[in-house]
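Quarterly update from the structural biology core.
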Amino acid sequence: MSILVVSLAIVSFLLPGCAGTRPHPLPFAQAEANRSNERGVEAARRGDKAAAVSAFEKAYRGYAAVEHYPGMVTALLNIARVSTNQGDFAAARKALAKARYMIDFVPSLAAEFSFEQAKLLLRDGKAAEALPWGERALTLADEAARGRTTNLVADIACRLGNRERAISLAVTGLELSKRAKDRQETANAQRLLAELALEGGEMPMAASRFHEALSLDKELAASSKIAIDLEGLARVAEKAGERKKAVDFWERAANASLAGADPASATASLARIAEIHEQEGDFASAAKIRTLIADITKNSQETPAK
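Predicted structure, tokenized:
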């Protein structure tokens, strides 16, 4: 199964009436909505997702008060993106459902809307439904968005079992992302190509691609992606019969997940270590790992996520 972590790209378009010379002052509600949207963008950039969603919701209400469709769709797309990043997929679906009724009035945002639809459908395991939205997004994408959109369509192709097309698109996505100096999307493309190499039994290539992604994700201090890269390297080591190396990678992946406040992923990595110990007959080490898993699970249940 391919892994693709899509970048959180907040929509901060120059909306009509946001800047420049105007013959008439903006309605108060629209001017305040503009400010709320920008506050949301800033909150998302600093990682305060709750504040970002709140600001975007306020922006939506302001734009809706004056029936300003570009602003309304922009706010909804931003709500969808931040909500997806938070794991609140129901809120993301709700925002996109609202935007769908307005997108015909805002053709300039059709590519972004299609991208979000494809991404969410893919996340829901509906690759066949995601494909036409991804294709549409790719057709409409501007130069800045072509790398991430190509990566997304590559991932859809991979999920549908179209390996050759997935590889071709991922290579193109890698080239586009490097050209744009987009380290996040370059890492995404490398990770997807690593998964495809792993599926094809190309162990050296898979390891090389995962290491490339890992290097970039470390530069970006992206703990969740670092964990995914290390998990990939652990699976490569296992397939190569290098169990000791695999355990090391699984341990590092667990630590990265814990650093990123993702106890579920951490315990999954630790569970794999316990299984390896058990397969080797080292039941004492396996028992210690399972005790650690229980402790992490208990602590995560006692400490509500922020």
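Confidence is low (pLDDT under 50) at residues 1-10, 12-21.
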